[in-house]
Amino acid sequence: MSKVRIYTLAKELNLENARMLEILDGLGVSYKSVSSTIEEDTVELIKQIVAEEGTGSGDEVTQAPAAAPADAPDTAKGDAAPQASQPAAPAAAQPAAQAQAPASATATQGRDDVVSDASKAEIPHRAPVVTIMGHVDHGKTSLLDYIRKTKVAAKEAGGITQHVGAFEAQTSKGRIVFIDTPGHEAFTTIRARGANVADIAIIVIAADDSLMPQTREAIAHAQAAKVPMIIAINKMDLPQANPDKVKTDLTQLNLVPEEYGGDLIVVPVSAKTGEGVEDLLEYISLNAELEDLRADPKGTFAGVVIEGRVDKQSGVLATVMVQEGTLHVGDFLVVGENYGKIKAMTDSAGGRIKEAGPSTPVQILGFSEVPTSGEKVSSAKNEHAARDLIATRASDRRDTENAQVQRKLTLEEMMGP
Ligand code: GDP
Ligand code: MG
Question: Any idea where this protein resides (predicted)?
């Protein structure tokens, strides 16, 4: 036996990936992701630990020491998340004898600033939010269309799906939210305002075209945002498809695919035939599990504008991604120096809803001004509080502006005539 991938070993030992990473952290073993490989010695060590804990599949040879916690509860804990529908292995019951490091912060990336580690275990999991980027004509729209067609429950006949900028897919591994304004624009405008909406970036590369300028750009954006990437090599149905060239080209960017011994997950797909799409969704879920994405539906509301527009009939409509807390019809929202009261909300499938929790994209009717993509949305207790918040923001902005003018004047004075 030689090197083994972390997730392969986790599967073999019937452990959750998060638990496996905890063990690795405890051992001080470094890794980049669940697809990183670990040495044989480490594998043996882990098997021993798992056997001692008695938390694995049970058919491992147990070398249980005398102090084995025979009465350790084997009930799954901490994964009561609604979307955690996969048949999770019983979470590791921690033996009292073994001091265990808390869930490692290195296992999470991106939005880990939102939740502190201490309270993390009590906060429910949330669905991953995925963005799709890549070179023009490599099949971003087609891939999203395929996923939408096959994974979004059909609505009643006659229902018109309005473009809301995001949709929710139901997969065997739980809910996945896709931002469906593909391209770097959505990603960069949102990021430019300091918000990070995406948890995972899918970089679509056509198998007959390999890496193109916008592919490199997309990769650079994902790297800058520290958003984990999954590569989808699309158009695999074409006779001229050359996935090996794509993988070699990626290697030249220092992105080494798994099968070449690296950590990069590369999934061959066809948006035309659907080949590989299920695998892609599975890798997204695997990655989400690793990232340990959580948000508190009972916490203070926080959200980001995905897009805003004016509808001739309804007026101003905004798609907002709920990141923390829960939105309710009637809530007061503040975006920049504007506020609105939610008159109506629709989910991404066009259905009317009364409330929306974390990782839910909702279309909101009730703003008076069109909000811009990437603007942060917060809620206020009532209209008075909303106005107060806006007044504070406006005065802060004027102070900053005045200070800037002042500084400029002083500079000019200093420089003399
Ligand atoms: P985008 O610019 O990245 O959004 O690319 P599109 O989704 O618009 O696709 C560009 C072209 O490639 C269209 O003509 C699609 O029909 C075609 N296309 C996309 N995916 C596939 C695929 O998997 N196989 C084949 N044969 N054609 C595809
Ligand atoms: Mg397109």
Answer: Cytoplasm
